[in-house]
Design goal:
By secondary structure, the chain is of the alpha/beta class. The chain contains ten helices and 14 strands. The structure holds flavin mononucleotide.
Length: 365
């Protein structure tokens, strides 16, 4: 019988197991220019026994940046920095995709003073606080709605970022369509009140995501492209009036485009980046949506060893992505396989800082 620890064939890539490292923003690209460096390469290299590493979200443009010290994929220096990372992972036999990110309204103008206000489908200020370029907590600004004439440039930024990911030596890319960032803001009607061809009906709200996917799959074969989605997610002030209909449609369309995998977050861990609350009575998105997507189905969000094995045995998932457990356990697949004790993660070192809480979690051997 196949287990979580057996290999998976994703197109022409052989994943050594189905324990996936979820994308994890760590805000450790502090030097000017948001450039990955040797420390980041060490961190990812330590985690190369994952079946697939999905990198922390990486902004496709200055306007796409939402927090200080997150790495970009729009400049030549950033490409060179990321190359250190991909080489470290490949040297140890691992595989790594880059997560392509535009944060939309989850930003602050101080992060991109030349571009001005954050952009979004609609001028709706998200509730809550955000960080300025110098790490001060302030309320979100009210974003500027993207004009129709700006969409082509936005898609060109995604295409260019996908090309840069190739130059940097990644094995593929994941389009970040989850967690209340720009593409999710377009998808969900709590954030999208547009009255043009990008708002209103489900088809219209999904248009931007598909245009991005179509641009990216001109650079990478569809099998090398994944898409991350978070149905029922409330993180970053998100909501939708009919998530089942919306995400079934989106997943079916992604399937017909031959996208390699769908990476779907369970809403029980919707706020994982900011807190440890788990909503056990939340709907199971792998059960609700697995049938809608014919390709590889990765499920993430609040998994333990037991619940991951159970989800796999239920047949609803092909692979399970782990976030916080991978932060604290560089050799997570081995530990899960032999049921070894797990290191505990330290939330206070998740975001920002140096090697402490980053590259100093011990491996078993
Ligand atoms: C520190 C931290 C950073 C995160 N950064 C990202 C990110 O860059 N992109 C993304 O799609 N999700 C991000 N997430 C969400 C995780 O990928 C994952 O979905 C979430 O942590 C739930 O999984 P877990 O319970 O295994 O941690 C982040 C979560 C945490 C805790």
């Amino acid at each position: 019988m196949t287990t979580l620890f057996d290999s998976f064939q994703l197109g022409d890539l052989t994943l050594q197991n189905r324990v996936i490292m979820a994308p994890l923003t760590r805000m450790r690209s502090r030097q000017p220019g948001n450039i990955p460096q040797a420390l980041n390469a060490l961190y990812y290299g330590q985690r190369s026994s994952a079946g697939l590493i999905i990198s922390e979200a990486s902004q496709i443009s200055p306007q796409g940046q939402g927090y200080p010290a997150t790495p970009g994929i729009h400049s030549a220096d950033q490409v060179d920095g990321w190359r250190l990372v991909t080489e470290a992972v490949h040297a140890k036999g691992g595989l790594i995709f880059l997560q392509l990110w535009h944060v939309g309204r989850i930003s602050h103008s101080s992060l991109h003073p030349e571009e001005g206000l954050p952009v979004a489908p609609s001028a709706i200020q998200p509730s809550g606080m955000t960080l300025t370029a110098d790490w001060q907590q302030v309320p979100f600004e009210t974003p500027r709605p993207l004009e129709l004439g700006e969409i082509a440039g936005l898609i060109a930024d995604y295409r260019k970022a996908a090309e840069n990911a190739k130059l940097a030596g990644f094995d593929g890319v994941e389009v970040h369509g989850a967690n209340g960032y720009l593409l999710d803001q377009f998808l969900q009607d709590g954030a999208n009140k547009r009255q043009d061809s990008y708002g209103g009906s489900i088809e219209n709200r999904a248009r931007l995501l598909f245009e991005v996917v179509d641009a990216v799959t001109q650079v990478w074969s569809p099998q090398r492209v994944g898409v991350r989605l978070s149905p029922y997610g409330t993180f970053n002030d998100m909501s939708d009036s009919n998530p089942v209909e919306l995400f079934r449609y989106v997943l079916a369309q992604l399937g017909s485009r031959g996208v390699g995998y769908a990476h779907v977050i369970e809403p029980r861990a919707t706020g994982a980046g900011g807190g440890d609350v788990v909503y056990e009575d939340a709907p199971s998105t792998s059960q609700l949506f697995r049938q809608s997507f014919p390709g590889m189905f990765i499920s993430a969000g609040g998994y333990t060893r037991d619940s991951a094995l159970q989800a796999f045995d239920s047949g609803h998932v092909d692979a399970v992505a782990f976030g916080r457990l991978f932060i604290a356990n560089p050799d997570l697949p081995e530990r899960l396989k032999v049921d070894a004790p797990l290191n505990r993660y330290h939330r206070e070192t998740f975001y920002g800082g140096d090697e402490t809480g980053y590259t100093d979690y011990p491996a078993l051997k």
